[in-house]
Amino acid sequence: MKNLSLVAVVLFIFTTSFVGAPTGENESGVHFRDLSFSEAIKAAEKEGKIVFLDAYASWCGPCKWMEGHTFQSEKVGTVFNEHFVSIKIDMEKGEGPKLAQKYQVRAYPTMFLINPKNGSVNKRILGMQREQAMLDAVKEFTE
């Protein structure tokens, strides 16, 4: 019984450390558009921006953490909303599996900066990123 209680405590701590994200929409965070991949490509080309694709899975704890923290950051939102057409796609549903295969998604989260002119990857960002790490990762595309 002690072992079961210990396992429950460890799981609780692990889960809340990644998933303990605030809820609700933050107006100053990244504005993820409700677009298909092809619609995002067209919008980015029209607006002279790059596509930011957050390739995630619904069960991914670090993805949930980023959704509630990094992507809610006012600083990250300001930069991303100015320079990118941002979309989130679950790589296990809808058009996700095809995109996961095309862009060789092997771990979550994986994020991409995609050139809208030809669909090529300008940059691949792997793993959970905190605010400053995310800003540093995209810096060369925002100056």
How would you describe this structure to a colleague?
The structure is a single chain. Helix content is 43%, strand content 17%. By secondary structure, the protein is α+β, with helices and mostly antiparallel strands. The chain has one domain (28-141): 3-Layer(aba) Sandwich (Glutaredoxin). A four-stranded mixed β-sheet has the order 2-1-3-4. Helix 1 (2-19) packs across helix 3 (61-68).
For this entry, give a set of tags:
single chain; 143 residues; alpha+beta; Glutaredoxin; four-stranded mixed β-sheet; 6 helices; 17% strand
Task: Set down the secondary structure blueprint.
Elements: H1 2-19, H2 37-47, E1 50-56, H3 61-68, H4 74-83, E2 84-90, H5 96-102, E3 110-114, E4 121-126, H6 131-138
Parallel strand pairs: 1-2
Antiparallel strand pairs: 1-3, 3-4
CATH hierarchy, class:
Alpha Beta
Strand order within the widest beta sheet: 2-1-3-4
Low-confidence segments, ≥5 residues, pLDDT <50? Answer: 4-26
Shape: globular
Question: How is the main sheet built?
Answer: 4 strands, mixed
Question: How far apart lie the N and C ends?
Answer: 57 Å
Give a summary of the structure in a few sentences.
The protein is of the alpha+beta class and 143 residues long. The protein is built from six helices and four strands, in the order ααβααβαββα.
